[in-house]
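Progress against Task 2.4 (sequence-to-structure conversion) is shown through the following example record, which the project officer requested during the mid-term review.
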Amino acid sequence: AVVSTQSTGVEESYSCYNYKVAGGTVTRHPSLTTCWRSRDANITCNMPTSSAEYRSVSGCGPCGKSAKERGTCVECYSDSCNHIETSQDQSQVLRRARRSVSAECAGKCPYS
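Structure tokens generated for the chain above:
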């Protein structure tokens, strides 16, 4: 059961989100990563459980054994399943809210 980010022509594709942990902050790449699996392999994505010691290269495939044992990585088993809210999501929500503020609300609303 092989999972990779490169196709050799005998696999099926699926997608996972890619995460990076740096300086205690988890960030998600803005686009999905295309993952490839052999036809007999299950879809598997991985994601960080905290901002400590997560070192996946692509979000594709299972967690490393030691990361899973330490609880710094968790797996899921469907296409694009590894979406977690990050601080960048919270910032985007605030930016969208600020753009949608009416002139009447601008002086009163807490997010303006």
